[in-house]
């Protein structure tokens, strides 16, 4: 299972958000309850509005959603790359995740001290970026020594890596993240061997005050974070209020919806964040549906039908024959699988079919 690590400076609401993430989803996962693997790792259900209609079509009460892992990583402080705070432990925890959710404080509070004194979301982002870039520069320097030695011995892979190291070093030294450096497919493969912290896909969570959530889009600090995310990283910023999400986590689903409506907010920021991270990781969802259960399955964007079948069981991939497939939207419009078949919406797909998000599939196999 792929992991997303939640990072940020101290006192930005990072742990509050993690707790809300791991608790809020329990009500939606009766058949896949939240479980704590470690004190700071949680399996989180990916909210999907398509599951309930599919259950109604299939006449089943059993719904099994798909999940991802979130890791609450200890707060970073200036100088982490030199061992300040948790230093190397913090950096190692980031190295072990597949994507980064950076929580950025956008709320004023006299009760919660900001580590830098003044509230400046973009400066906070730059602080974390600087520490990660400095750590990556050390990694690149060590890799250069090994690559130079291999290149002198005629190792082609070492020579290729040395070229990539040269480009990465210049890019990082200019204060830019590794993920913003354009690399060819072969260069990217070489760069992956370095496991750079700033090469990981990332998204920002702009954490706002409870009384500012309804008008968050108009807040200058949120606008600054969004602009930075788009222009410096090519990613997005999702607005959340960790304090509100912590309260929602304690409420039944219907009461939580009423509470949000009373605030003038349409939906949970946590749900939006989970879906955004899921897509950031290159993950998509297909469904299986029957009277027994409706289940969401995770696959990687670009997977073929046999590869997707393998997420259910290796025998499905090994003995793949075909995939009876219908798009969720088509099935919902038809009202039943029989109706979809009558309308010619049910397709027979072979081994080369690239699965699409929302496909409802019945795999045929023989082992």
Strand content: 15-25%
Global Rg: 23 Å
Question: How are strands sequenced across the largest beta sheet?
Answer: 2-3-5-1-6-7-8
Strand tally is 13
> Which percent range fits the helix content?
40-55%
What is the number of helices? 14
Strand/helix succession: EHEEHEEHEHHHEHEHHHEEHHEHHEE
Keywords:
367 residues, alpha/beta, 7-stranded mixed β-sheet, 3-stranded mixed β-sheet, 14 helices, 13 strands
Structure summary:
The protein is α/β, with parallel strands linked by helices and 367 residues long.
Can you put this structure into words, describing what you see?
- This protein has 14 helices and 13 strands.
- The strands form three sheets. It has a seven-stranded mixed beta sheet, with helices on both faces.
- The longest helix is centred in the middle third of the chain and has 32 residues, at 121-152.
- The two termini are 26 Å apart.
- The chain is flat and about 60 Å long.
- The chain has 367 residues and is α/β, with parallel strands linked by helices.
- Helix 4 packs antiparallel against helix 5 and helix 5 crosses helix 6.
Element layout with pairings:
Elements: E1 3-7, H1 14-24, E2 36-38, E3 41-45, H2 51-58, E4 63-64, E5 67-72, H3 88-95, E6 99-105, H4 121-152, H5 156-173, H6 185-192, E7 202-207, H7 220-233, E8 237-240, H8 242-248, H9 253-263, H10 269-280, E9 283-289, E10 294-300, H11 305-310, H12 314-318, E11 320-327, H13 328-334, H14 337-342, E12 347-349, E13 359-365
Parallel strand pairs: 1-5, 1-6, 4-10, 6-7, 7-8
Antiparallel strand pairs: 2-3, 3-5, 9-10, 11-12, 11-13
Helix pairs in contact: 1-8, 4-5, 5-6
């Amino acid at each position: 299972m792929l992991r997303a690590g939640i990072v940020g400076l101290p006192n930005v609401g990072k742990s509050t958000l993690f707790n809300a993430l791991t608790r809020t989803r329990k009500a939606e996962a009766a058949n896949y309850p939240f479980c704590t693997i470690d004190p700071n790792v949680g399996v989180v259900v990916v909210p999907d509005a398509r599951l309930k209609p599919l259950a109604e079509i299939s006449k089943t009460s059993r719904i099994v959603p798909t999940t991802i892992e979130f890791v609450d990583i200890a707060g970073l402080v200036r100088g982490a790359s030199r061992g300040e705070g948790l230093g190397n432990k913090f950096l190692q925890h980031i190295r072990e995740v597949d994507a980064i959710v950076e929580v950025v404080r956008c709320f004023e509070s006299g009760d919660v001290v900001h580590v830098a004194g003044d509230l400046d979301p973009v400066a906070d982002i730059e602080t974390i970026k600087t520490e990660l870039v400095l750590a990556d520069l050390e990694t690149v320097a060590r890799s250069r020594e090994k690559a130079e030695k291999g290149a002198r011995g005629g190792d082609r892979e070492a020579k290729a890596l040395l070229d990539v190291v040269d480009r990465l070093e210049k890019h990082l030294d200019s204060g830019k993240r590794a993920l913003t450096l354009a690399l060819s497919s072969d260069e990217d493969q070489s760069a992956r061997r370095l496991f750079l912290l700033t090469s990981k896909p990332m998204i920002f969570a702009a954490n706002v005050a409870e009384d500012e959530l309804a008008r968050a889009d108009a807040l200058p600090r949120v606008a600054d974070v969004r602009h930075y995310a788009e222009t410096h990283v090519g990613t997005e910023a999702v607005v959340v209020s960790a304090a509100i999400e912590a309260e929602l986590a304690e409420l039944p689903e219907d009461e939580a919806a009423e509470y949000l409506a009373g605030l003038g907010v349409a939906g949970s920021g946590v749900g939006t964040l989970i879906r955004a991270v899921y897509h950031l990781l290159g993950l998509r969802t297909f469904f299986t549906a029957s009277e027994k259960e409706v289940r969401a399955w995770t696959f990687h964007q670009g997977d073929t039908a046999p590869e997707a079948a393998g997420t259910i069981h290796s025998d499905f991939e090994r003995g793949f024959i075909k995939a009876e497939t219908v798009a969720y939207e088509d099935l919902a419009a038809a009202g039943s699988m029989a109706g979809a078949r009558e309308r010619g919406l049910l397709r027979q797909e072979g081994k080369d079919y690239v699965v699409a998000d929302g496909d409802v599939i019945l795999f045929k196999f023989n082992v």
